[in-house]
Every structure is written in structure tokens, then in C-alpha cells.
Design goal:
With 125 residues, the chain is of the alpha+beta class. It has three helices and eight strands. The strands form two sheets. A six-stranded antiparallel β-barrel has the order 1-4-5-8-7-6.
Amino acid sequence: MIPGMNLYQMARELIGGSAYTFFAQNPRTLDGRGLYTTTYAAGVPLTDSIQAVSRTLYVALGLDLSKYYVMIYTDNPLLVVERDESGDQIEFDGARYQLLSNNDWRSIDGWEGVLAVRLNATVPP
């Protein structure tokens, strides 16, 4: 295997993926109190590999043990939390997730792994 082969795409063709709804972050705006607020675009259906993060990795990654995390493996460009960016969100398996950080291999192999945390609010059925 060599860089540029997009192993993610090859694996997804073999094992399939998970359907979810993607919500892109709109540009932040100032509200009447001078605070930045974030809104999200309408949801877009996507299919990628979504996997639970092993509880044994929580400590190694410095994650909050009281929360639930997933990894999204995708060839779609997703925006994670950064300075002056709230990051995109997804809806998966009845819950909303905030995209936190990524391992971006898109420039080399065409995919990235994105860590997401489940938000407290759940999506109504």
C-alpha cells in the first residue's frame, strides 16, 4: 500500500457505513449582547464509518469518562472545533454530536478520522 490509495474508501466499499445527518456550521454572528452565536445549516444525509471509542482509550486521550465519544472515518471535509470556530455537528443513532478534533489524512490518502462527543440533548424520534 502506498500513500494516495485511500484505504478508507476501499474499506467502506467492503464493510459499508453508517447513515447520519451532517449539520455544517454557519459563520458565527454577534447577537444583541455582543456575544458570538452559532447556527447550523440544514441537515444533509451522509454515510461514513462511525465507531465507538473504546473506554480504555479515554484515559490515554484525556477524555471525560462521563461522556460518550465516537470516531467518524470519512472522506468528506468536516470542520472541527478550533479557535473562532464552533465546528460542525452530526445526528447519529438518535443523538447529536459535536465534532471536536481530527486526524486529517485527506491531503495524503483522501480521508480523515474525526472525534465527536455526544451532546446532552437527544434528537426527538
